[in-house]
Amino acid sequence: MAHEDRIIDMVGAGGADQIEENPYHKKIKKEISQKHQQKEQKKNSVKMDLKDKVQLSQPFKWRESKKGSFELEETPQEKEYTRLKHSGTKVLQILGLKIDLAERKDVLMESYKKVFIETKSHNWLFAKLYQLKAGVMQFLLSRLGLTPKELDTLRKEATEGAFEDNKKKFAQNEYNSELFGIFSAGREKKKLKAFNEVRGQLMKQMINLGKKSVYTKTSVLSIQLDQVTKIYDDLREEKKNLIFKRDYYAHG
Questions:
Q1: Max avg pLDDT among 36-50, 90-104, 178-192
Q2: What is the pTM (predicted TM-score) of this model?
Q3: Local confidence band at 24 (pLDDT 50, 70, 90 cut-offs)
Q4: 119 vs 30, 45, 171, 208, CA distance in Å?
Q5: What angle do CA 42, 47, 48 make, to 5 degrees?
Q6: Which residues contact 115 (CB under 8 A, 6 or more apart)?
Q7: How far is CA 239 from the centre of its chain?
Q8: Which of 15, 30, 91, 99 has its CA 20 to 30 A from that of 46?
Q9: Maximum CA pair distance of the chain?
């Protein structure tokens, strides 16, 4: 209030020149000038930002069709998107991989069958991870032109191959288990437990393959009997070979 009273006294006394030279007046004038400059800078920055955004956007282009009607013309970006969307060979290029999927179609088909079999694993987590991988490969193959029927054929071929492979592994595991049981006389129970675990895993995989009735108690006993017979035949053959070698070196 003291400064304001002083200014009023100066005006009343006709001291306009003294007001211009007053330090307080100069301070107020300087603050007003700075605020005005800041407002101008903000306006300019907004104009520049709007200008940049306008330059980035592209105007709509219209073209006249053969029927005489007007329609929007696709921009280069839209054309490229459409080309990539309908081109299976470009999928991995978008992801940054420089490979031609069309040339590796047969390899991908075989890999898909192997991955599909892994989705039938006895290990739940392992099977889930391979289900994700199989989904990606199925997408790639579909983009390369394989129909759902062709993909189903690949899965059937893979299942049949896995079915035969599972039976061979099961028989081999029973052979090893019976042979080990004969020579160890059941003393090493830990190793026998390992054979039992493998048997359980193969049985579970067979169920996942959709063959629930393959390994029944009767069929498993039949397989074990066949393997014991095979062991007996193999041991007899080995005995003959040993006798032959003994006689050969004895008379040599």
A1: 178-192
A2: 0.58
A3: low
A4: 77, 58, 23, 9
A5: 100
A6: 130, 133, 134, 137
A7: 55
A8: 30
A9: 150
- What is the average pLDDT value for the chain, to the nearest integer? 76
> Would you kindly state where each structural domain of the chain is located, as residue ranges?
100-239
214 touches 206 (CB < 8 A): yes
